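Section 5.1 Outputs to date
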Amino acid sequence: MPWSNALVHADFKAAKQPGKALPVLENKHCLRYGLKHPGGVLREVDKYGVDFRNVFGQTPLMIASRLGNAELAAALLDRDADTGLVDGNGLNAFQIALDRACADERFARAKLPAIFERLAPASLDVQIDGRLVKLDRRLMEYLMLCIAMVLFYQRLGENWASARRMLSAMDFADVLQHFPESVVPARRKQRAYISSILSKNEVSREGPHNRKLFLRMRHGQYLSNPQLALRVEGDWRRIYELLSLERLAGALQDPVHWAGQVFDMNKHRQAAIDGLRNLLKVLSGGGGLPPELF
Protein backbone atom coordinates (compact mmCIF):
# COMPACT_ATOMS: atom_id res chain seq x y z
CA MET A 1 0.00 0.00 0.00
CA PRO A 2 1.32 3.51 -0.78
CA TRP A 3 0.63 4.78 2.74
CA SER A 4 2.57 1.92 4.34
CA ASN A 5 5.46 2.46 1.93
CA ALA A 6 5.47 6.14 2.86
CA LEU A 7 5.64 5.21 6.55
CA VAL A 8 8.65 2.98 5.84
CA HIS A 9 10.40 5.87 4.06
CA ALA A 10 9.64 8.03 7.10
CA ASP A 11 11.41 5.42 9.27
CA PHE A 12 8.23 4.47 11.12
CA LYS A 13 9.36 1.22 12.73
CA ALA A 14 5.96 -0.50 12.93
CA ALA A 15 5.49 -0.14 9.16
CA LYS A 16 8.72 -2.08 8.58
CA GLN A 17 7.26 -5.10 10.36
CA PRO A 18 3.59 -5.28 9.35
CA GLY A 19 3.43 -8.93 10.42
CA LYS A 20 3.97 -7.79 14.00
CA ALA A 21 2.19 -4.43 13.85
CA LEU A 22 -1.10 -5.64 12.38
CA PRO A 23 -1.82 -8.16 15.18
CA VAL A 24 -1.19 -5.38 17.71
CA LEU A 25 -3.76 -3.18 15.94
CA GLU A 26 -6.22 -6.06 15.77
CA ASN A 27 -5.83 -6.75 19.47
CA LYS A 28 -6.36 -3.10 20.33
CA HIS A 29 -9.39 -2.41 18.16
CA CYS A 30 -10.89 -5.83 17.35
CA LEU A 31 -10.15 -8.14 20.29
CA ARG A 32 -13.74 -8.36 21.52
CA TYR A 33 -14.92 -9.23 18.00
CA GLY A 34 -12.98 -12.49 18.15
CA LEU A 35 -14.35 -13.63 21.50
CA LYS A 36 -16.68 -16.58 21.72
CA HIS A 37 -19.30 -14.56 23.59
CA PRO A 38 -20.30 -11.42 21.62
CA GLY A 39 -21.83 -9.50 24.52
CA GLY A 40 -19.32 -6.62 24.41
CA VAL A 41 -19.83 -6.05 20.69
CA LEU A 42 -23.60 -6.31 20.91
CA ARG A 43 -23.70 -3.75 23.70
CA GLU A 44 -21.80 -1.36 21.43
CA VAL A 45 -24.24 -2.12 18.63
CA ASP A 46 -27.20 -1.40 20.88
CA LYS A 47 -25.58 1.91 21.81
CA TYR A 48 -24.34 3.14 18.42
CA GLY A 49 -26.36 1.16 15.86
CA VAL A 50 -25.68 -2.10 14.09
CA ASP A 51 -23.82 -0.45 11.18
CA PHE A 52 -21.71 2.07 13.12
CA ARG A 53 -18.16 2.48 11.84
CA ASN A 54 -14.93 2.47 13.80
CA VAL A 55 -11.94 4.76 13.23
CA PHE A 56 -10.95 2.64 10.21
CA GLY A 57 -14.37 2.96 8.57
CA GLN A 58 -15.31 -0.66 9.33
CA THR A 59 -18.70 -1.82 10.52
CA PRO A 60 -19.04 -4.56 13.16
CA LEU A 61 -20.07 -7.02 10.43
CA MET A 62 -16.93 -6.23 8.43
CA ILE A 63 -14.73 -6.88 11.48
CA ALA A 64 -16.54 -10.11 12.34
CA SER A 65 -16.05 -11.24 8.76
CA ARG A 66 -12.37 -10.32 8.75
CA LEU A 67 -11.86 -12.37 11.92
CA GLY A 68 -13.97 -15.25 10.67
CA ASN A 69 -16.40 -15.02 13.59
CA ALA A 70 -19.45 -16.57 11.95
CA GLU A 71 -21.45 -16.67 15.19
CA LEU A 72 -21.04 -12.93 15.72
CA ALA A 73 -21.85 -12.32 12.06
CA ALA A 74 -25.09 -14.28 12.52
CA ALA A 75 -25.98 -12.24 15.62
CA LEU A 76 -25.39 -9.02 13.70
CA LEU A 77 -27.48 -10.23 10.79
CA ASP A 78 -30.28 -10.97 13.26
CA ARG A 79 -30.07 -7.25 14.11
CA ASP A 80 -30.37 -6.39 10.38
CA ALA A 81 -26.72 -5.54 9.71
CA ASP A 82 -26.28 -4.33 6.13
CA THR A 83 -24.19 -6.81 4.11
CA GLY A 84 -23.92 -4.38 1.20
CA LEU A 85 -21.90 -1.65 2.90
CA VAL A 86 -18.28 -1.31 1.74
CA ASP A 87 -15.04 -0.26 3.40
CA GLY A 88 -12.39 2.17 2.16
CA ASN A 89 -11.19 -0.45 -0.32
CA GLY A 90 -14.65 -0.81 -1.85
CA LEU A 91 -15.09 -4.32 -0.42
CA ASN A 92 -18.22 -5.57 1.36
CA ALA A 93 -18.16 -7.85 4.40
CA PHE A 94 -18.08 -11.05 2.33
CA GLN A 95 -15.28 -9.76 0.09
CA ILE A 96 -13.30 -8.74 3.18
CA ALA A 97 -13.37 -12.39 4.26
CA LEU A 98 -12.28 -13.39 0.75
CA ASP A 99 -9.40 -10.94 1.01
CA ARG A 100 -8.13 -12.66 4.13
CA ALA A 101 -8.78 -16.15 2.74
CA CYS A 102 -6.72 -15.40 -0.37
CA ALA A 103 -3.74 -14.52 1.82
CA ASP A 104 -4.24 -16.89 4.75
CA GLU A 105 -4.56 -20.62 4.09
CA ARG A 106 -5.61 -21.48 7.66
CA PHE A 107 -8.38 -18.88 7.57
CA ALA A 108 -9.57 -20.15 4.19
CA ARG A 109 -9.85 -23.74 5.40
CA ALA A 110 -11.19 -23.15 8.90
CA LYS A 111 -13.22 -19.94 8.76
CA LEU A 112 -14.28 -19.17 5.19
CA PRO A 113 -17.00 -21.86 4.72
CA ALA A 114 -19.20 -20.57 7.55
CA ILE A 115 -18.66 -16.94 6.54
CA PHE A 116 -19.43 -17.79 2.91
CA GLU A 117 -22.66 -19.47 3.94
CA ARG A 118 -23.81 -16.48 5.98
CA LEU A 119 -22.47 -13.46 4.12
CA ALA A 120 -22.09 -14.26 0.41
CA PRO A 121 -24.96 -12.42 -1.35
CA ALA A 122 -27.32 -14.66 -3.30
CA SER A 123 -26.35 -12.71 -6.41
CA LEU A 124 -24.36 -9.70 -7.60
CA ASP A 125 -25.99 -6.99 -9.70
CA VAL A 126 -23.65 -5.96 -12.50
CA GLN A 127 -24.27 -3.45 -15.27
CA ILE A 128 -22.43 -3.90 -18.56
CA ASP A 129 -23.12 -2.08 -21.83
CA GLY A 130 -26.33 -0.70 -20.37
CA ARG A 131 -27.76 -4.10 -19.46
CA LEU A 132 -28.30 -5.60 -16.03
CA VAL A 133 -26.60 -8.93 -15.35
CA LYS A 134 -27.30 -10.95 -12.23
CA LEU A 135 -24.46 -13.23 -11.19
CA ASP A 136 -25.77 -16.09 -9.10
CA ARG A 137 -23.39 -17.13 -6.35
CA ARG A 138 -23.37 -20.69 -7.67
CA LEU A 139 -21.57 -19.44 -10.79
CA MET A 140 -17.78 -19.40 -10.95
CA GLU A 141 -18.01 -15.95 -12.54
CA TYR A 142 -19.48 -14.64 -9.28
CA LEU A 143 -16.53 -15.83 -7.22
CA MET A 144 -13.92 -14.84 -9.79
CA LEU A 145 -15.20 -11.28 -10.05
CA CYS A 146 -15.04 -10.94 -6.25
CA ILE A 147 -11.55 -12.45 -6.17
CA ALA A 148 -10.43 -10.15 -9.00
CA MET A 149 -11.40 -7.22 -6.75
CA VAL A 150 -9.28 -8.68 -3.95
CA LEU A 151 -6.34 -9.39 -6.28
CA PHE A 152 -6.45 -5.77 -7.40
CA TYR A 153 -4.86 -5.02 -4.03
CA GLN A 154 -2.96 -8.24 -3.38
CA ARG A 155 -1.34 -8.92 -6.75
CA LEU A 156 -2.05 -6.50 -9.58
CA GLY A 157 0.28 -3.73 -8.38
CA GLU A 158 3.17 -6.11 -7.68
CA ASN A 159 2.62 -7.99 -10.95
CA TRP A 160 2.83 -4.74 -12.90
CA ALA A 161 5.71 -3.19 -10.96
CA SER A 162 7.91 -6.29 -11.17
CA ALA A 163 7.04 -7.86 -14.52
CA ARG A 164 4.52 -5.65 -16.39
CA ARG A 165 1.91 -8.37 -15.94
CA MET A 166 -1.80 -8.05 -15.28
CA LEU A 167 -3.83 -10.83 -13.67
CA SER A 168 -3.74 -14.33 -15.07
CA ALA A 169 -5.36 -17.71 -14.48
CA MET A 170 -2.28 -18.59 -12.43
CA ASP A 171 -3.03 -15.78 -9.95
CA PHE A 172 -6.58 -17.06 -9.44
CA ALA A 173 -5.45 -20.69 -9.19
CA ASP A 174 -2.77 -19.82 -6.61
CA VAL A 175 -5.26 -18.32 -4.17
CA LEU A 176 -8.04 -20.83 -4.85
CA GLN A 177 -5.94 -23.94 -4.26
CA HIS A 178 -6.45 -23.84 -0.48
CA PHE A 179 -10.16 -22.96 -0.59
CA PRO A 180 -12.21 -25.87 0.80
CA GLU A 181 -14.41 -28.05 -1.39
CA SER A 182 -17.57 -26.63 0.18
CA VAL A 183 -16.69 -23.23 -1.31
CA VAL A 184 -14.96 -24.22 -4.57
CA PRO A 185 -15.06 -27.77 -5.98
CA ALA A 186 -11.66 -29.17 -6.99
CA ARG A 187 -12.39 -29.10 -10.73
CA ARG A 188 -13.06 -25.36 -10.55
CA LYS A 189 -9.63 -24.72 -9.04
CA GLN A 190 -7.85 -26.10 -12.09
CA ARG A 191 -5.94 -23.54 -14.11
CA ALA A 192 -7.49 -24.76 -17.38
CA TYR A 193 -11.00 -24.30 -16.00
CA ILE A 194 -10.18 -20.82 -14.70
CA SER A 195 -8.70 -19.90 -18.08
CA SER A 196 -11.91 -21.02 -19.76
CA ILE A 197 -14.00 -18.75 -17.51
CA LEU A 198 -11.74 -15.77 -18.21
CA SER A 199 -11.79 -16.45 -21.94
CA LYS A 200 -15.55 -17.04 -22.12
CA ASN A 201 -16.20 -13.69 -20.42
CA GLU A 202 -13.83 -11.49 -22.43
CA VAL A 203 -15.16 -8.07 -23.40
CA SER A 204 -14.32 -8.61 -27.07
CA ARG A 205 -15.97 -12.02 -27.42
CA GLU A 206 -19.52 -12.78 -28.44
CA GLY A 207 -21.58 -15.60 -27.02
CA PRO A 208 -24.91 -16.28 -25.33
CA HIS A 209 -23.31 -16.79 -21.90
CA ASN A 210 -20.63 -14.11 -22.12
CA ARG A 211 -21.06 -11.62 -19.30
CA LYS A 212 -18.11 -9.48 -20.44
CA LEU A 213 -16.53 -9.36 -17.00
CA PHE A 214 -12.88 -9.30 -18.06
CA LEU A 215 -10.79 -7.23 -20.46
CA ARG A 216 -7.97 -9.21 -22.09
CA MET A 217 -4.89 -7.00 -22.19
CA ARG A 218 -2.68 -9.52 -23.95
CA HIS A 219 -2.55 -13.30 -24.20
CA GLY A 220 -3.54 -14.76 -20.84
CA GLN A 221 -3.55 -11.43 -18.99
CA TYR A 222 -6.68 -9.71 -17.78
CA LEU A 223 -8.25 -6.82 -15.92
CA SER A 224 -11.78 -6.58 -14.62
CA ASN A 225 -13.80 -4.85 -17.34
CA PRO A 226 -13.28 -1.11 -16.64
CA GLN A 227 -16.77 -0.37 -17.98
CA LEU A 228 -18.37 -2.80 -15.55
CA ALA A 229 -20.49 -1.19 -12.81
CA LEU A 230 -21.65 -2.74 -9.55
CA ARG A 231 -24.68 -1.76 -7.52
CA VAL A 232 -23.19 -0.61 -4.21
CA GLU A 233 -25.11 1.01 -1.37
CA GLY A 234 -27.94 1.86 -3.78
CA ASP A 235 -25.79 3.43 -6.51
CA TRP A 236 -24.11 2.14 -9.65
CA ARG A 237 -20.33 2.54 -9.44
CA ARG A 238 -17.77 1.57 -12.05
CA ILE A 239 -15.35 -0.95 -10.68
CA TYR A 240 -12.23 1.26 -10.76
CA GLU A 241 -14.15 4.05 -9.10
CA LEU A 242 -15.27 1.64 -6.39
CA LEU A 243 -11.79 0.20 -5.85
CA SER A 244 -9.21 2.68 -4.56
CA LEU A 245 -6.64 3.42 -7.26
CA GLU A 246 -4.54 5.28 -4.69
CA ARG A 247 -4.16 2.06 -2.72
CA LEU A 248 -2.83 0.14 -5.71
CA ALA A 249 0.80 -0.63 -4.90
CA GLY A 250 3.70 -3.04 -5.13
CA ALA A 251 5.97 -4.22 -2.36
CA LEU A 252 8.67 -1.84 -1.19
CA GLN A 253 12.12 -3.23 -2.01
CA ASP A 254 15.37 -2.73 -0.13
CA PRO A 255 18.05 -0.77 -2.05
CA VAL A 256 20.81 -2.88 -3.56
CA HIS A 257 24.41 -1.99 -2.66
CA TRP A 258 26.91 -3.03 -5.32
CA ALA A 259 30.38 -1.82 -6.32
CA GLY A 260 30.14 1.18 -4.03
CA GLN A 261 26.81 2.31 -5.49
CA VAL A 262 23.24 2.16 -4.28
CA PHE A 263 20.50 1.04 -6.67
CA ASP A 264 16.98 1.90 -5.52
CA MET A 265 14.34 0.43 -7.82
CA ASN A 266 11.42 1.80 -5.84
CA LYS A 267 11.25 5.03 -7.86
CA HIS A 268 11.00 3.04 -11.09
CA ARG A 269 8.43 0.70 -9.58
CA GLN A 270 6.37 3.62 -8.31
CA ALA A 271 6.48 5.22 -11.75
CA ALA A 272 5.11 1.97 -13.18
CA ILE A 273 2.29 1.93 -10.61
CA ASP A 274 1.46 5.57 -11.41
CA GLY A 275 1.27 4.64 -15.08
CA LEU A 276 -1.07 1.76 -14.31
CA ARG A 277 -3.35 4.03 -12.28
CA ASN A 278 -3.52 6.48 -15.19
CA LEU A 279 -4.26 3.62 -17.59
CA LEU A 280 -7.17 2.42 -15.44
CA LYS A 281 -8.57 5.95 -15.34
CA VAL A 282 -8.38 6.18 -19.13
CA LEU A 283 -10.03 2.78 -19.62
CA SER A 284 -12.75 3.63 -17.11
CA GLY A 285 -13.49 6.76 -19.10
CA GLY A 286 -13.90 4.76 -22.30
CA GLY A 287 -10.43 5.33 -23.73
CA GLY A 288 -8.45 2.72 -25.63
CA LEU A 289 -5.24 0.85 -24.93
CA PRO A 290 -2.01 2.71 -25.78
CA PRO A 291 0.01 0.70 -28.34
CA GLU A 292 3.23 0.95 -26.29
CA LEU A 293 1.67 -0.42 -23.08
CA PHE A 294 3.79 -3.55 -22.88
